Amino acid sequence: MATLTTFAAAKMRFKDLQIEMAHGAGGKASRRLVEGLIAPILLESPDALGDAAHVAFGDTRLAITADCFVVRPLRFPGGSIGELAVNGTVNDLAVSGARAEALVTTFVLEAGLRREVLEAELRAMSAAASRAGVRIVGGDTKVVEHGDADGMYISTTGIGRLLADVVIDVRSVKPGDQVLLSGPVGDHGITILLARGDLDLEADLRSDTRSVLPLVEGLVAAAGRGVRWMRDPTRGGVATTLNELARDGGCGVVINEDDVPVHDGVRGACELLGLDPLHIANEGQLVAVVAPECAAEALRAVRAVPGGEHACVIGEVRAQPRGTVLAMTRYGASRVLDMLVGDPLPRIC
Amino acid sequence: MATLTTFAAAKMRFKDLQIEMAHGAGGKASRRLVEGLIAPILLESPDALGDAAHVAFGDTRLAITADCFVVRPLRFPGGSIGELAVNGTVNDLAVSGARAEALVTTFVLEAGLRREVLEAELRAMSAAASRAGVRIVGGDTKVVEHGDADGMYISTTGIGRLLADVVIDVRSVKPGDQVLLSGPVGDHGITILLARGDLDLEADLRSDTRSVLPLVEGLVAAAGRGVRWMRDPTRGGVATTLNELARDGGCGVVINEDDVPVHDGVRGACELLGLDPLHIANEGQLVAVVAPECAAEALRAVRAVPGGEHACVIGEVRAQPRGTVLAMTRYGASRVLDMLVGDPLPRIC
User: Fold this and answer.
1) What are the boundaries of each domain within chain A?
2) In chain B, which among 10-39 make CB contacts under 8 A with chain A?
3) How far apart are CA B298 and CA B226, in angstroms?
4) Residues from chain A contacting residue B235 (CB–CB below 8 Å)
5) Does A120 contact B at CB distance below 8 Å?
6) Which residues contact B332 (CB under 8 A, 6 or more apart)?
7) Residue A293 carries which DSSP code?
8) Single pTM value for the model
C-alpha cells in the first residue's frame, strides 16, 4: 500500500540507551532514531522515509503525512505554533508532489493555558489553512497537568492528492542535475532562537513560515518531469537535506557556498554563536533537483512566484564523491558539509 | 468536503478563562471546549463533531479521524499507550462505519526516555495494527526537555474506507430503537486508576483495549441499515455517550441500570470512590442503536463475535424526555443520568 519516496542507501543503527534532545533535531541522531528503531518496527515498508507516504484507496492515490510541533515560544516574529502546524504539513505534502486537501489536528493542552492563547493559535491555524487552500476536518484534544506540555503541542496530519505531471523520486536524480533553492536560509531557526531572549542579541528577522505549494506548482508547471526531487529544508537545514539527497540518491552534491542567500541577521547570529546557516531550520523554503535542460526555465518560474524572487541555483549533482556534500568557498577551497550533529537549537518547530 | 456524522442540537459556549483538566475528560467540559471554541474556529462545518469526518477525494469517500494519547502510566494491565493509540483510532473509524486502512503517528518524546520503553511501545503499536488489519505508513517524532511530556505522548490519525450497507447518522434514530452494549463497562478507567498505585486498592482487572471492528462488522452484517448509530464509549463513559445520543438525536434514552454489565472489581472500586461505572472510560466496547425489528438478530450477531459474548440490550430510545437519559433502577425508580462533569480520572487515554 505504501509507496516509497526515498530509499535509504545503508541503514543506520540506533544504539543509544535513551532519548536525547538531539534525537529531535532533524539531523544525524534523528535519522538514527527513525531509521534504526522506529521505522523497522512500525512501518511495513521501512524504506519509506520520504516526506509523505503515498497510499492507494481503490483507484485513488493519496499522499499522507503527519507532523508534530513543540516549538518554544508559541509565538515569534512572523508566525506561531498554529501557523507552523498547518504550513509544515502542507509543505511535506507539497514537496512529495501533492496538494493538501484535508487536515486533522490534535492538541495536547497544559492545564492552566489561558483561553486567549489557545484561541489565538486556533485562529492562526484557520488563517493558514485558508491561505493554503486546505480544510481542517477534525481533531482531538487532551489535557495534561500544569507543568507538562509547555502550553500546547500540536500534531497535524495532512491528506493530499498527487499533482499531475510530476514524480518525486530520489532514484531519478542524475549527475548534472541542478540544485535550486527558493530563498534565504536560516530565518526560522534564528528567529526562534532570538525570540527566546536567552541571548543578548537582536536582529530584524522573521520566521519564513508559509506554504511552499505555490513555489512547487510554479516549478512543476515549468519543468514537469524535469523536477526529480524536492524537500523543504526544516530541522537540520539545507545541509541535512542535501546530505539526505546525496545518501539516498547515491550521488555527490557540490554547492557554491557564496550562492546561498543568507540574511545579514542570520549570518551575524551564526557567526557569533559558531553555527552554520546551512544547518539552521527553514519553514518556507524549497530545495529542488531539476534536470539541467529545465533549470533555467524552472528558476524563472520559481522567481515569478511571490516569495520566490530570491531563488537561485546553488549547486549541482555529481557522480562523485558519492554520498557526500561539498561546499566550495569563494577562494576555491572546498569543505565537506555534514548533516547536523547534536542539537544547537532545540524545539524550533 | 466534510460530511457530518453528528449534529448538535444547541451549541454550547466556552466561557472559561483557562484550560482545566476537566476539559480533557470527555464530558461536559470537553464538549464545551470543542463545540464552543475549537470547532467554530477550525472547522468549515463546525457541526461535524462525530467520531470521524467523511471526506470525498474524487469518487472515493474516506473516513478520517485523529486522536491523541497521554495516558499515565504508559503500561497497565491489559495494554499500554501504544496499543491504545492504534485501537482508539481504529475504533473511532469503526463506529463511524469505516474500516481503518492506513495510520500515521506522531510521537512527542521526553528527553531521558529509555530506549526499551520506546521500543516496547513501538512493538505494541505494530502488534495492535497487525491484529486490527491496518498498516502504519508514516509518522513524525519530536523531543522535548526532561520533565515535559511524561515519557511520551502519541497522536495517531486513521484513514479508512466506508463499510458497505451501513449509514451512521444520529438523525436516523427513532423512538423504539434499541440500545445495545457490547460488554462490561468501566474496565479501562478503573484499571488505569489502580495501576497508578495512589489508592490502596487492588482488583483483578485489565483494560478492555481492543479493536471493536469485528463487533461492528458482525453487527452490520446482521442488521445492515437497521444500525442507526454507534459510538465507542471512551472518556466520559456510557453515560456521556448516551447523553450525546439524546442531545444530538433530539430524543430521550431510557436504560435499565441492572442490565448494564459491570465487573465486580469495577463496581467495588466505584462504590468506594463514589464514582458511577457508567461514567468510567472503556476502550473496547461499543454502544449501538438498532432498529427494533433488527435488535434480536443484531444481539445474536454481536454475541457470536469473540469478545462480544456479554453483549446485551440495555435500553431504548423514546420520544421523551427529549435530550435526557434516564436510568431505571431495580426498584422501579428512575434517575437522570448526566454527562460526566469534572474529571475524576485524569489522563486515562
Assistant:
1) 51-162, 170-336
2) 14, 16-25, 30, 33-34, 37-38
3) 9
4) none
5) no
6) none
7) G
8) 0.94
Cα(A101)–Cα(A89) distance, integer angstroms: 11
Query: Which top CATH class is B51-162?
Result: alpha beta
Tell me how far CA of residue B3 lies from CA of A224, B29, B35, B137, B216, in angstroms.
Answer: 34, 25, 17, 25, 21
Contacts of B329 (CB under 8 A, 6+ apart): B257, B258, B335
Residue A292: Cβ-neighbour burial (10 angstroms; 0-12, 13-18, 19+): middle
Task: Tell me if A115 and B19 make a contact (CB, 8 A cut-off).
Answer: yes
Using the predicted structure, report yes or no on whether residue B247 has a pLDDT greater than 50.
Answer: yes
For residue A246, give how far its alpha carbon lies from the nearest alpha carbon of chain B (Å).
22
Q: What is the ipTM of this complex?
A: 0.93
Q: In b/e form, how buried is each residue of A183-201, taking b as 16+ CB within 10 angstroms?
A: bbbbbbbbbbbbbeeeeee
CB contact under 8 A, A135 and B44: yes
Of the candidate ranges A44-48, A275-279, A344-348, B236-240, the one whose mean pLDDT is the lowest: A44-48
CB atoms within 10 A of CB B78: 19
- Measure CB to CB from residue B24 to each of A38, A119, A142 and give the nearest one: A142
What's the confidence (pLDDT) of residue B202?
83
Q: Select the residue of A18, A30, A69 nearest B115 (Cβ to Cβ).
A: A18
The three three-digit cell numbers of residue B159, written as one number: 484513514
The residue in chain A having the minimum alpha-carbon distance to the alpha carbon of residue B347 is A144
For cell 499522499, the residue is A63
The residue among B109, B157, B192, B348 with the most chain A CBs within 10 A of its CB, best to mutate, is B157
Cell numbers at A115, concatenated:
483561553
Chain A hits for B60, Cβ within 8 Å:
57-60
**Which three cell numbers mark B202?**
487492588
- Other C-beta atoms closer than 10 Å to the C-beta of A19 total 26
B1 pLDDT higher than 60: no
Q: What DSSP character marks residue A35?
A: I
Hey, are the CB atoms on B64 and A138 less than 8 Å from each other?
A: yes
Q: For residue B99, what is the enclosing H or E element?
A: strand B98-110
Domain A170-336 has CATH 3.40.710.10: no
